[in-house]
Amino acid sequence: MKALPFVLSVIATVVAVLALAATLSSRDGDVAELRARVAELERGARAAPAKPGAPGAAEGAERPRRTRRNRSPAPSDPPVEAEPVVPVVRPAVSPATAGDAAAGNATGSAQSFLTGWVRSFETQPKGSDFFRLAVEAYAPDLVADLRGYLADARQPPALRLWVAKILSAPRFSDDPYAIDALVDALQTSPTGDLAKAVIDGIAGGGGPRHAVRLEALVPTTTDTTARMALIKGVAATAGQHANAALLRLFGREQHEGVRAAIVASINPLDETSGLQLIRRAASDDHYPVRNRGAERLGVFRSDDARALLDEWLAWEKEHAVRARLSAARAQQDEIPSYDVRRVLGPPDVPTPGADHVNAWCPAQENAGTEWLELTYAKAVDATVVRVYEVYTGGAVARVDVRSPGGSWRVGWEGTSDLHGGGTFEARLSSPGVAVNAVRVTLDTGRHKGWHEIDAVELVGPDGSAFATDATASSTWGQ
What's residue 52's pLDDT? Predict the structure, then answer.
């Protein structure tokens, strides 16, 4: 009988161990399920179109499309901040919600998961991996609460850093409320790892409205590294007006390293402000600033850009800067891959069915209406406009023509029967009239894929001609 208590104790211990093992097994299954759900959500959000081919790449080569949505850290990335444990400012929760969170109930509500995650930082510097994954899975339902934690400087740095990463995920790139939360966080934490994560998130999904707020923060930030990060954020979110913002920042900046970073961020889409900024850089007393200006001058190819380069070369004495200017001259003379000038002259893509850098390509895939306007050195009494389409055909929706000294008129409008790369012939409604300009309008949403054009030929009974000059609605990579 004396051994009975001992036997009962052993039995109780075995039962407890088995129960604990079952609980841990269940928790592992919950974590695996949550990881799978988060991964599935992120894969869907990252399903952005990919542009095949690369500058200088062989025909048919594949490359990842550079979009603003492919930078977000994976859900399993560890937080940067780890020590020490910082007291958590607890949220107000109902007893039932708090009970769910404390029990770690995998079937609890989104709010209970968030509460459990926040409270886990009281005892774990990195917080609970289980609850974090649950919060990531339910994040779209928790944006308002996450925004509050991110803006609250009293919260543990590791918690705020993870919230910044969650709100920077691709699924929130088009959510202005989430992006606003990231901008608000910079008011209380303008430097450090949190600021870097926040700025990366803003750059990935923000727009001109956010660029204005970032620009306002630059002169109030004393840390030079943080100012450089903010400047990159301004450049990424201001779009075609980025250079005007950079020009304003350059005029106020005292640190030569930051001025060099401003010049390095010049956007090739805005030549007017871009050349103004480069001219300011050219007269800067500090070599790194001039060096960056010389480097960026190559992205502009107009007569004004070439004239500025010649003017600068005439007085620049620094050997390294002169070398950069010479490289910029070579870049100005080079035709980039997919550039609109690739449509000039006869077709030179060997296999129309495959992507090729020798064809013009619009900036976005399946973005709707795009246009290509071409001029010809000699007029042709045209009956047909022949469009050499590459990779994905069938996008030609309208062809307008213009006679010397005349105005635009519709030459053809309809639906192309082309589905892959090949040659489409638009037979003009008024044939035999002299034409020296053509505008091809594309509906890139008709067929999924990248719609590229190798050449556009004017064809008449007495001969044909290829374009000698061209402009486009947009160009890939520019």
Answer: 45
Instruction: Quote the crossing angle between the two packed helices 110-120 and 95-103, to the nearest 10°.
Output: 60
C-alpha triplet 111, 113, 117: angle, nearest 5°: 115
Q: Which two tokens stand for residue 210?
A: 């956010």
Residue-level pLDDT at 367:
84
**Residue 157 has what DSSP assignment?**
H
CB of 476 within 8 A of CB of 363?
yes
Residue 368 CB partners (closer than 8 Å, separation 6+): 443, 444, 445
- How confident is the model at residue 35, as a pLDDT? 60
Judge contact between 217 and 237, C-beta under 8 A: no
Q: What is the DSSP letter of 360?
A: B
Residue numbers in the chain where pLDDT is lower than 70 = 1-108
Helix, strand, or coil here: 262?
Answer: helix
Please tell me whether residue 410 adopts helix, strand or coil conformation: strand
d(CA 66, CA 54): 11
Q: State the sign of the Cα–Cα–Cα–Cα dihedral 402, 407, 408, 409.
A: negative
Q: Which helix (H) or strand (E) holds 397?
A: strand 396-402
Share of the chain above pLDDT 70, in %: 77
Supply the pTM of this predicted model.
Answer: 0.56
Q: Strands of 433-443's sheet, edge to edge?
A: 409-413, 396-402, 433-443, 369-382, 469-472
The beta strands (E) that lie in 285-360 are given as: none
Alpha helices by DSSP H, 46-156 = 95-103, 110-120, 129-137, 143-151
Inter-CA distances, 470 with 306, 323, 438, 473, Å: 19, 31, 9, 11
What's the pLDDT score for residue 39? 60
Region(s) of the chain under CATH 1.25.10.10: 95-333
Locate 52 and state its tokens. Answer: 């095949």
Contacts of 371 by beta carbon, 8 Å cutoff, 6+ apart: 439, 440, 441, 442, 472, 473
- Cis amide bond preceding 84, omega within 30: yes
- Which CATH architecture group holds 95-333? Alpha Horseshoe (1.25)
Are 124 and 85 spatial neighbours (Cβ–Cβ below 8 Å)? yes
Query: For residue 271, what are its two tokens?
Result: 């030549």
372/437 Cα distance (integer angstroms): 11
Q: What is the β-pairing status of strands 409-413 and 369-382? A: unpaired
**Residue ranges matching CATH 2.60.120.260 in the chain:** 340-472
Looking at domain 340-472, its CATH superfamily turns out to be Galactose-binding domain-like (2.60.120.260)
